[in-house]
Fold each of these.
Amino acid sequence: MRTTLSLDKDVAAQLERLRKARDASYKEIVNEALRRGLREMVSRPKRRSPYRTRAVSLGRCRIASIDNISEALAVAEDESFK
């Protein structure tokens, strides 16, 4: 079957590089790329496991409340708060 395709320049350049590297015809490269792409598009996406972060104990809280910003900053900067 003959079909005319209008390819973007970057796609055409990649196909040409691949054709030269494999020493294959343009038809073979385009057909293989389409087959692989169509197979991927039709297949179900792989289910990924959710990302988990392990809990780590940070020790006791050094201030009773962070409502007092100056106290919180003093503790964070390791200054003695008065």
Amino acid sequence: MESAALISLDWGSSNLRARLFDREGKVVEIRSSAQGLLSLPDRSFESTLRALCGNWLRGGEVPLIANGMIGAREGWVEVPYLNCPATALDAANALVRVTLTDGAVLHIVPGLRCTSPSGQDDVMRGEETQLWGLEPGDPACCVLPGTHSKWARLDGWGRVTSFETSLTGELYAMLTQHSMLSKLMRFDGERMDCFDEGAALGLAQYDRLSLVLFSVRTAGLLGRVPPEGLPDFLSGLLIGAEVGSTLAYWPQGGVKLLGESDLCARYERVLRRHRAGAGPMAHRGAGRSGGGTRMNGLIAILRGVRPDDVLAVGEILLEQGIRIIEVPMNSPRPLESIALLARRFGQQAEIGAGTVLDVDDVIRVQEAGGRLVLSPNVNPDVIHRSKVLGLRSMPGVATPTEGFAALAAGADALKLFPADTLGPSAIKAWRAVFPAGTPMFGVGGIGPDNLGRFREAGATGVGLGSSLYVPGIFASELRQRARAMQAAWDAAGFRPGTD
């Protein structure tokens, strides 16, 4: 006890955990209590604290710090949230002091708030201290599984830039204890084969969760999943839906898991399945079409195409390996062309609209069957509505400031425009500062002579306009151009972290 230097409290809704640290930063002792905020009588905060670790306090000599719901509105004292992006230093400067009766001072850590990548307000209290425990380095996506799972992004300077919360753990508890699904379940051992089956369903149908949840009941009633396998089937379904729906909005890259080892192992299992292609591979809408195209390579920009010609053009493009097709909204009757392409090729290619400038156009594109919205500018309303409707968003950016603003608004990819002015060196430089794996496409002034240089610089793909298609082009000429473009792209070869 003579070397005691700090008391750290993790005080949440259900539990209170206390750790005593020595001057070397090592944990000397850990104590816990079920006296979380929900079971605390008459706001007896100080007496509860003293009952657990009063002999650690030594008359106020040992400093205390607490995080979690103890700083919430119903806690000891309400501590305002910090706005993201935020660092541990920002939190240290915003600690709120509470003086105990013997003069000891408790410092309460503020939580965080942000607008999530899907455009919703979100908050956290407690989990942020785990994130700040990571070593600064490459930008990272961190997942903290639990009752309320958190997905957080950190930049290379250790700032929490955004996060999102899923009620997966709470849903699982409610459904296994208080729903009709629980009547068929037997909790007798672990059935990871059933977990995997549920995870595959959750990944593929993440945007229909309220519907596919009923499959837990039918799987039990019809005997397809045994009673002892139903809890794991449900667990896999919920985690699969969480992973699929979250990664539909988040820039891709590595994922760090922080939390209890058994639960993290389940998330890792689902993430591996997701990466292997069992789910929509971060493609909002792949579960609908069944195809699941990958968002990389060449984008065919069919400016000026007419509905009468669009299917023949689409046939040639797919024949030559081009799997992303854009019809700009300033083309003749663009929504008709998008609808025709989506019906014919929606399972083989990603069909989208370009030059989308307002929210109403986003709605029309979605109704026509488009799955990708490309814009020449950064309009947060357009990005947000695209995500709400389940479409992927690729706004046009010309500066890193615009690029970061687009990602903060929820964009799936960045369109560097005009690419011929910015040049391949811009992509190479941006790769050093943007989150790892951020999809970046060069658009504007790109053809077979320079597209390879963009790929070598780190471009995820490029958009091809008049160098590929012009209205009235002969089929033979279009086929030849598409073949040359695809060959030049393939010849540039893969570059790590860019596909």
